[in-house]
């Protein structure tokens, strides 16, 4: 059969078109990732409700008479201090670099963030003790931008004004030593906390006292809070690591075991928070903790973010969220805080 010129041109055009489509498809295949990225959705487990919050007056903390400030001189000083309005938009850091711990027999320095106008307001502020990760120092939270997040949140009325304490973990915080042996728990509960409450105007009620930490610091925060719910009403674990080996951490001090086997946790009324990125190495242990708490109906919040590993980039991205959690039920205006001239309510 004889092929006409027009048919031949049509055939050549068709072959050219098919060839172009084949090349284009190969290019598209070459640009496709070897493994398609499927982001893990944000998972939030919230079993607590606002109605479960115990009013502050229901759990007052006893205070020694010597800790009560003298009302007369303080009240007389108030008018001259409050007549000058405070225009500061940011808080300030105070460094306590010489702090020999009798428990640890080492210098356990610490830093304190005071909210804007702390000295002028003469108010009692809620307290948050935030612990650093294992390979970091007390400056870690500052490096994550917690002071900038606090200044901005307080100025906008979104974050409750609070006092932040960042202690150095030292050598004692790196080892699994527990009472009655010298322990980092004892450093926090019997040395640091009383000293801070002596030196600063703190709202001395467990519902206005929180402790949290990153990684290893998150472990200490949870074991301390779960064993001392009379001291701390709020606890946060940010990529906290909970050892499952009882030879590593005995059951009495192991947060996973405390969550499972202690009867008092059912009535401890701890406001608890945990979070990690989907690729965080501490995620599995926090998932176990959340599961055990859920099985017993113990209120807590556990949040998994799609992006994030066990590093400063992740924690810095969520530091503002941590502050919202800690101060969730606290007054957002310093004027609503109790007076430092009176004993803590």
From TrEMBL:
Domain of life: Bacteria
InterPro entries: AB_hydrolase_fold, Esterase-like, Mycobacterial_A85_antigen
Name assigned to this protein: Esterase family protein
Annotated Low complexity bias: 64-75
Region (Disordered): 51-79
Organism: Phototrophicus methaneseepsis
């Amino acid at each position: 059969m004889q092929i006409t010129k027009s048919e031949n041109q049509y055939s050549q055009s068709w072959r050219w078109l098919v060839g172009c489509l084949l090349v284009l498809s190969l290019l598209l295949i070459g640009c496709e990732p070897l493994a398609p990225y499927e982001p893990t959705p944000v998972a939030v487990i919230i079993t607590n409700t606002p109605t479960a919050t115990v009013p502050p007056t229901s759990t007052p903390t006893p205070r020694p008479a010597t800790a009560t400030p003298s009302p007369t001189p303080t009240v007389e000083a108030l008018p001259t201090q409050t007549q000058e309005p405070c225009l500061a938009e940011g808080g300030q850091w105070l460094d306590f670099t010489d702090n020999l711990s009798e428990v640890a027999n080492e210098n356990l320095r610490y830093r304190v963030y005071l909210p804007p106008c702390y000295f002028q307001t003469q108010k009692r502020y809620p307290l948050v003790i935030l612990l650093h990760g294992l390979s970091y120092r007390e400056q870690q939270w500052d490096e994550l931008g917690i002071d900038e997040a606090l200044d901005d949140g307080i100025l906008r009325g979104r974050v409750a004004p609070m006092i932040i304490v960042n202690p150095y973990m030292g050598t004692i915080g790196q080892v699994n030593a527990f009472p009655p042996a010298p322990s980092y728990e004892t450093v926090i509960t019997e040395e640091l906390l009383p000293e801070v409450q002596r030196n600063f105007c703190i709202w001395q009620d467990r519902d206005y006292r929180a402790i949290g930490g990153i990684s290893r610091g998150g472990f200490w925060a949870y074991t301390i809070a779960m064993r001392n719910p009379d001291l701390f009403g709020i606890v946060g674990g940010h990529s906290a690591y909970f050892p499952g080996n009882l030879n590593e951490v005995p059951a009495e001090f192991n947060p996973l075991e405390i969550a499972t086997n202690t009867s008092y946790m059912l009535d401890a009324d701890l406001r608890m928070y945990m979070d990690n990125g989907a690729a965080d190495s501490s995620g599995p242990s926090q998932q176990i903790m959340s599961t055990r708490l859920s099985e017993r109906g113990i209120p807590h919040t556990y949040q998994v973010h799609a992006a994030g590993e066990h590093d400063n980039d992740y924690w810095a991205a969520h530091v503002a969220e941590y502050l919202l959690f800690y101060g969730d039920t606290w007054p957002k205006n310093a004027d609503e805080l109790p007076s430092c001239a009176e004993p803590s309510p």
